[in-house]
UniProtKB/TrEMBL annotation:
<dbReference type="Pfam" id="PF16209">
    <property type="entry name" value="PhoLip_ATPase_N"/>
</dbReference>
<dbReference type="InterPro" id="IPR001757">
    <property type="entry name" value="P_typ_ATPase"/>
</dbReference>
<dbReference type="InterPro" id="IPR036412">
    <property type="entry name" value="HAD-like_sf"/>
</dbReference>
<feature type="domain" description="P-type ATPase N-terminal">
    <location>
        <begin position="40"/>
        <end position="107"/>
    </location>
</feature>
<keyword id="KW-0812">Transmembrane</keyword>
<feature type="transmembrane region" description="Helical">
    <location>
        <begin position="1037"/>
        <end position="1056"/>
    </location>
</feature>
<dbReference type="InterPro" id="IPR032630">
    <property type="entry name" value="P_typ_ATPase_c"/>
</dbReference>
<protein>
    <recommendedName>
        <fullName>Phospholipid-transporting ATPase</fullName>
        <ecNumber>7.6.2.1</ecNumber>
    </recommendedName>
</protein>
<dbReference type="InterPro" id="IPR023214">
    <property type="entry name" value="HAD_sf"/>
</dbReference>
<dbReference type="InterPro" id="IPR032631">
    <property type="entry name" value="P-type_ATPase_N"/>
</dbReference>
<dbReference type="Pfam" id="PF16212">
    <property type="entry name" value="PhoLip_ATPase_C"/>
</dbReference>
<feature type="transmembrane region" description="Helical">
    <location>
        <begin position="82"/>
        <end position="100"/>
    </location>
</feature>
<keyword id="KW-1278">Translocase</keyword>
<dbReference type="Pfam" id="PF00122">
    <property type="entry name" value="E1-E2_ATPase"/>
</dbReference>
<comment type="similarity">
    <text>Belongs to the cation transport ATPase (P-type) (TC 3.A.3) family. Type IV subfamily.</text>
</comment>
<dbReference type="InterPro" id="IPR023298">
    <property type="entry name" value="ATPase_P-typ_TM_dom_sf"/>
</dbReference>
<dbReference type="InterPro" id="IPR059000">
    <property type="entry name" value="ATPase_P-type_domA"/>
</dbReference>
Amino acid sequence: MRTGRKKKLHFSKIYSFKCGKGGFEDDHSQIGGPGFSRVVYCNEPDGLEASFRQYATNYVRSTKYTAATFLPKSLFEQFRRVANFYFLVTGILSFTSLAPYSAVSAIIPLIIVIGATMIKEGIEDWQRKQQDIEMNSRKVKVHEGNGVFKQTEWKNLKVGDIVKVEKDEFFPADLVLLSSSYEDAVCYVETMNLDGETNLKLKQALEVTSTLNDEQDLGDFRAVVKCEDPNANLYSFVGTMQFEEQQFPLSPQQLLLRDSKLRNTDYIYGAVIFTGHDTKVIQNSTDPPSKRSKIEKKMDKVIYFLFGVLFLMAFIGSVYFGVVTRDDIEGGHRRCYLIPISLYVSIEIVKVLQSIFINQDVLMYYEETDKPAHARTSNLNEELGQVDTILSDKTGTLTCNSMEFIKCSIAGTAYGYGFTEVERSLAKRTGSPLIVKGKDIVEHPVDSPKKSFVKGFNFDDERIVNGNWVNEQHSDVVQKFFRLLAVCHTAIPDVDENTGKVLYEAESPDEAAFVIAARELGFEFFKRTQTSVSVKELNPVSGKRVERSYKLLNVLEFNSTRKRMSVIVRDEEGKLLLLCKGADSVMFERLAENGRDYEEETREHVNEYADAGLRTLILAYRELNEDEYEVFDKRFSEAKNSVSADREALIDDVTEEIEKDLILLGATAVEDKLQQGVPECIDKLAQAGIKIWVLTGDKMETAINIGYACSLLRQGMKQITITLDNQEIKALEKEGEKDAIAKASKQSVLQQITQGKALVAKSSSEAFALIIDGKSLAYALDDDVKNLFLELAIGCASVICCRSSPKQKALVTRLVKEGTKKTTLAIGDGANDVGMLQEADIGIGISGVEGMQAVMSSDIAIAQFRFLERLLLVHGHWCYRRISTMICYFFYKNVTFGFTVFLYEAYASFSGQPAYNDWFLSLYNVFFTSLPVIALGVFDQDVSARFCLKFPLLYQEGVQNVLFSWRRIIGWMLNGVCSAIIIFFLCIRALDPQAFNKDGKIADYQILGATMYTCVVWVVNCQMALAISYFTLIQHVFIWGGIALWYLFLLAYGAMPPSISTTAYRVFVESLAPTPSFYIVTIFVVISALVPYFVYNAIQMRFFPMYHGMIQWIRHEGRCEDPEYCNMVRQRSIRATTVGFTARSLARTNPLEDISQNPR
């Protein structure tokens, strides 16, 4: 790109009415009032007046803690866990005479657990700190005085500084544009980090400052800006600039936002208006939240329940003790082992190991960018298995930020053998070959020679390429078609001086795709001046490439109301041509009677393209006569220069009259290129019963097209569109009464929501899609409307929110999270998604092309959207099941152990005589039963990864929380009580009062305690073996090794002197090992204690299997490859209102699945 002052092109004249220098429509009457009190002294950041105003520095912090707050906040986080607080209280009590245990044994484990967790939190926050340091240390040129600019770090900028930002640099703060390298002070800005849009925005400085082009010019520049106070609204800005004793109104057209990027412009000069946490992008962010999983929160309730059980046991024991032992001299102490501190340690270890497995999964590794999955926090692993709603960004998350020209229809003939992700997915799903124009793409993918890849172009048809279009029946129409693509646009060519290759900077990716397609097919747009467009094209007569120049007279730009764009040019023969491209909804009605020759065929092709998820535009033209154009040009100039409030309406009226009586040429079809595997991923997630919302900053048309492309929308699905783009609101906007506009807008949104709810309630079998724009969303999120909006959204199969600001994304996420009380997952890749990621229960960052802001604010980072399928359906399900089963088992084994202690104390009239040796009590949770639980939490699989993906409804076990319901938790506890009763009473009855060994010696309490303990260790470990679905060598070692370790410990500990081993002295060698009854009792008690669980499990598995049980039966009976049986099971996972290409396929083949008739 050439630099400096050589750029004389007046872009404001190309963008004929977008950047016209007419009136400003913002209301500036409030400047100086409440909410509009900011005063900025430009180029005098250290002046006397500026020093009185304490504005924020430009230092930005995204960390959860600071050095000062880490200790108190982190300790608060730890003691929010009920069990930790309980152990803190018992630790304090251990220093009193009331405690039956030593202070060291109570405090040391607590310090280790809390310390380890705090270190983990500190490391995670340190990573955020490093990201902050990198951002705050970026460099920018700032004016130091006398026209001298010097590099400084972003964090040093002050309000009022003048900065120079160069091409492809990010803006360091919110700036008012003063001038640029272009003569008329325009610049291109990419706002991808703010709103996710890839198209470039055009900004233009005030005319009075546009002459400040050189560094020296800024030496004496002084101005005062008065504007609105810091706020989160990205799309509004109200202010005035006082310069040379005159007031000039400022609008969003002059505001450059932090974190957006300067593109296609060599440099700009700007004045810093908002810094640091006052900038609009930071105002849209939220503080990093403290997230806890639902299982962890429920675990607190379980512990409260156990507190209740403990209190009841203590109360009953105390009353019983008081009555029965009222004549005894001394009382005893009771200890409790129902709530083990090792539970939290074990869960932390398991979660860290689970995170390592997620990070190491090669099937979630993206080779192209060398990025594996990265679980940035391990706190939320099990939440991945309970997601009810996914809220996704669009650009860069679902799509690749690129468009490809793939098909077209010209003169009623369809061209292009390319196929889309949607078509490929449908073919794969149905098992049929994908045939396009007689070519079997699936079975013969190399029918056509491999072309070199050109970004934005994926067109293949030998009838058109290499100049073969001259042989077509309607070659004249083909020529006009591609000539229109090469001329009707606002793209800027950039010729690479080394290769001679022409590159394009366009306002939108699809516009770039059109000019690239025209270039590749022989119509190369290579030069633009202020008044002309030059194209190299093939002369069909001579067969040679010739240069043709078109005089550019007017550009009638695209907007969401007009839905079309036109240029008026004069060709070299002197003909006046109006070239127009636009949406089918507005173009067909503008065709002339003699211009509809190919209308029927074109409509049919457009419907086919739309069904394949392609974005379509209709191309048409007409010749103008001189008189007609002269009248139009005069009226158009008047409207363009109007300063009235209805300026745009006047322009629309004028253009409406000229854009009529068109002659149809054909239609284009471009693919908004989805990331690889997105439709398949969405289909699987939909089959799993997960609802998917798309929250995007893009226009409604773009979002709807993507909805079709990834099968969130389909032909025949009823669309409920909530928008304020109606005549009543527009009329009020012209009058400018803000209160009246707000009241009417809210009423309109409320009415549309109510109508939508009635529509959904009327038909339970149809699939509905809700589409709402940003303006409407602002009112839908009001306190008195949001619940109605949520009810409507929940009743729809898919929801798309367009033109959403980052704050709105976060608010919608909060509404869904708090309104449904179910787990929400947000996924995005840009800085505009940070608030949404932090607000959701789980935030997934895509490590894509939009920088690292989303990743640094996320809980888990992945490289592609498609990895979400494996992350949720496989790892999510496994982690949920493992953690749930692990916690239930933990309570089981501690209830089993604790109740044997309680029963013995009750049997001994609470005399204080312990059932077990002190070291038996201390090491139960540490050595003999802890490792099998950790192995369960890390390795167990109820169903393999392949079956998790084959039968997605398995995921609903987590969403419905069936594995950690109160019924299941209490069931496991009752199992523990049952096991404890069986162990205690069988041991008591078997060992007392008859002889224990051949010498006639009866079993005393040491032998009884050791035998009971042996039975407990065997029972809880064998119970683990029964509960496990997937054995590994590690689990065998831990389960049977834990039992073996008990016998080894009994030998070693019993060999120690009696002063150390106390009641365990030689008890195994002398008393237990030589006695057959010890082994008989152990075997008999273990089998008896396990029978209840085994019987219950067998009956449930055989007659009332859960969904994972059904899949286990399929695997067990060898019916994995029986398509009919598998399909019968899988059908339970497809709901009538689901989305995805499976639902699209069913709607095609079975009309009963979708009552609304397909319009095709």
